[in-house]
Give the backbone structure.
Amino acid sequence: MNVLFISIDSLNRHFLEAYGQSVELAVAAPNLERFAAKAATFERHYAGSLPCMPARREFFCGVQEFLWRPWGPVEPFDAPLPRLARGAGATTQLVTDHFHYFQHGSYGYVEDYHGFEFVRGHEYNAWKTAPREPDKTLLEQIKADDPTGLGFMNRAAYARNVAGFTQEEDFFAAKVFRAASSWLRENTAHPEAHPKWFLAVDSFDVHEPFHLPEPYASMYTDEDPTDPELVNWPFYGRVGEGQSELSERQVAFVRAQYAGKLTMVDRWFGELLDALDGQGLWDNTMVVVTTDHGHYLGEGDWMGKPDAPLYNVLAHTPLFIWHPGSPLMGERVGALTAAVDLYATMLEGLGATVPPHVHSRSLLPLLKGESEHHRDWAMYGYWGSTVNVTDGRYTYLHPCRPDVDIHCYSTMMLNPYGWFLPPKVQHGATSGRFLPYTDAPVWRYPAPSLSRHNAPLLFDVRDDPAQMRNLAGQGLEVEARMKRLLLEALGELRAPPESYARWGLGSMQTP
Amino acid sequence: MTHVLYCLNNASPSERRLMAASPLRPRPSRCLERCSTCFERPFLLVGGTLTLGESHRALLAGLEGGAP
């Protein structure tokens, strides 16, 4: 079977009609709805390692990395999905505008594909160096405060990259989904040439900057979208303070631009569905549509992906899967599932063998109707910080001690918190066979911890999906049970022994 | 109290201890999206404003009203 994987970055579940659309805007995404109506809609799907590249190591290498390592490369002991797909006789292709694949701190994610197409220019992508002084209004709206600066990660790069954009087709979603549609048409017209294929479409949109062409910029707001007081690339953090401070009017505008971008992405996603229709591919292709994480847009006073507790806005993610042999098409799947599971699911779909060392569990038994239960827990988080677990009904967010360092485990000397910056020599590193899922030696070096909240947080997300009522600290049995579930999950993945003390769980560690 | 943030990538272990001891209670952040500055020199975000200095000690001393 062929596999088409589509990630729409930062796709908020609560903005989608298929998930009840609990927002103030009637956001149109007819093609996502068209696909959801045809596919299985997963109700309890959770992110794992956050943010972008850690999620991709889960999707494409099956490793729940946040217990051991931050944002980083494919490791020499990983078994990347496109490499195994090749071995199973599939032609492999990546189409993406996700420039993080090509920055400091990331490599190894594209090299195993037979082909990849990289649409240049999104966000900070180092692409254009002219015009040196781009559009002043856009510079204000994206909060680029040093347009002529020569340092790393200057927001003005975006204004230069889009300086020649005059129509919708110049923008990123259009280019990515058109390129993917073209690849399908060119490579599936003669099945004897490519009897089996794996196509990964990794769209950076709906990620910020929320800079849009018309009609999308005005679709969900009465504001003038070119008003320089209105921000379309807000800083991460609290809406009520600091550099991320925004007025109610500005927050409303950001939400409207996010909604407009979602509608724009949906239009071009629809072209890809049309290509599947036109090529007659539904009978022999599994199609997976998901995201890496959500994006705070003022919920709980937060914006972006800040150092906030990992509420469900970020962690509870959409997943739709079309499988031609599944009796669940058009149905909703209530089983708890996790981002890392997509790796094994796609490999099995391609007829490839899933390596035994990975953390991924195939969803095919669920999809084939052979079982209704998939996993007891899903664990998620950022490396160096809190650890979070859900059983699908409750979410338990466990703090860490900021005064106890974490260790980074990798064959690379990474820049643990400066992901996009040049790597750092780690003078405190030691080496050894430290990882439980490989006998490969790696470096181990310390880095600071970052706390997101001081005490546990517990929510019943069935009755309180917005996570407004913290149930922790009340002596409820469910809190003790969720803490035990967390320990079970950490034990099953054989989390680094020293991490337990950092989470204040040292006395509860399974021997 | 003034809202002061620093980037974990921009402060050494000794500077982080200095922050923890400051009456201003600067808060650490995983990333403040100031990578250009972060790579090159010490900085704090004070009430949302980028504030540069020769060292974190000097920055804190300036904010606390004392000599570095």
